[in-house]
Amino acid sequence: MNPMQIRFTTSRHPARRIVAAGHVGFAFMLSAVALTVTLCGCVPRTEEDVVVYSALDEEFAYPILEAFERSVDYETSVVSKFDVESTKTVGLVNQILAEKDSPRCDVFWNNEIMHTVRLQKRGLLQRHDWPVPTDWPRDMISSDSTWCGFAARARVLLVNTKLLESDEQYPQSVNELLDPKWKDNCAMARPLFGTTATHWAVLRERLGDEIALEQLQTIADNALILSGNKQVAQAVSAGRVAWGLTDTDDAMIEKELGYPVEIVFPDQLPDQAGTLRIPNTLAVLKNAPHPVAAHRLVNYLIAPQTEDRLAMGPGSQMPISKESKFPPAVLPDKPIRWMRVDFEKAAENWETWNAQVAKIYAQR
C-alpha cells in the first residue's frame, strides 16, 4: 500500500465507513473520515463508535469487524487502522505510546502478544471482565485481566520433502538451528520483530540472557537469516534451504499452494519444552474515548465463533476455546505438547534485551 493511500469500504450504514489505513497519519485518516461523512450526510461521533488498531492483516480482521457492526441492533461504526509493514505491530504500539496522554484508540487487536504485554507493563491497558471459562489457559490471559489471548499460531519447522525425503531426516527441535550439520541449509527470521522476537524472549526467560544470546550468535553464524517468517517459508518451499523455523500460518500457505513441504511441531519429547504457541491478543486502552463500545466489541471478538472464522481461514489459526467447533487444518492427528509460558516475565527488560539481540542481527 502506498504510504499516502487510504481506502474506504462501505459498511452496513450508508453514511458510515470502516477505514483501513496503511502508513497514513491518524490525523489525515480522521480528516478523510470527516470528509466522507460530510459528503454522505451529517453523522455525529457517538459512544457507539469504536476505534480499533489491528495488527492482524486487514483481509482477516475486516470481515469480522464488519460482522460485529451487523450483529448489533443499534448503529455502531468501527474505525480501523491497519499497518501493512513487517514491523506493523511495533508501528501500532509506537502510535499508542505516542497517543498515551490523549488516546485515540479504543481496542488494540494484536496478532501476537509480546508488545501487548509491553503496553500492559506501562499501565496503558484497561482491566476487562473477559467472558471466558475459568479453565482458560493461564498463559492466554493476563494476571491483571487487561488482555486476553485467543486464536493462536504455533512456531513450527517447515521441511522441504524433496531435500529431506524421509521423515527420519526431519529436524525435531528448534535447537537444531545451532547444529553445524545444517549450516547454510536452515533458516530463521531476524529475531527483532514479530513472533520470532517473541519466541526468543520466551526462550531467554527459560535459559537466561547469557545462554540465549550465545545461542542466537550461533544461529546467526549457522542459519540463513531472513527478514520475516513468510520469507523463511518461501525459502523452504523453493528449495533454497532444507528447513526453517516459521509460523503455522506462513507454513500452511506454502503447503496449500502445493509445494513439497511438511510441517513439524517441534520439541515434543518428554524432556523437551514443547511447541510454542503465540495467540492473537485483545485489549481495551486505558482512558479509551469510547469505553462502552470498546468493551462490547472485545466481548464479541473473544467468542468461539471468531476463533472458528480464523481457524477456517488460510492462516488456520488454532482456537483456544474448547467450545470451538472447527478444528484447523494445520493440527496433526496426535495431540500437541504446548510449551508452558509466562509471557509477562518474558517481556521484562524488553528494551535492553532487544538492543542486545540487535547487536547480533542488525546487519544480517
TrEMBL record:
The keyword Signal applies. Pfam families: SBP_bac_6 (PF13343). The keyword Signal applies. Keywords: Signal. InterPro entries: Ferric-bd (IPR026045). It comes from the Bacteria. This is Extracellular solute-binding protein. It comes from Aporhodopirellula aestuarii. The lineage of its organism: Bacteria, Pseudomonadati, Planctomycetota, Planctomycetia, Pirellulales.
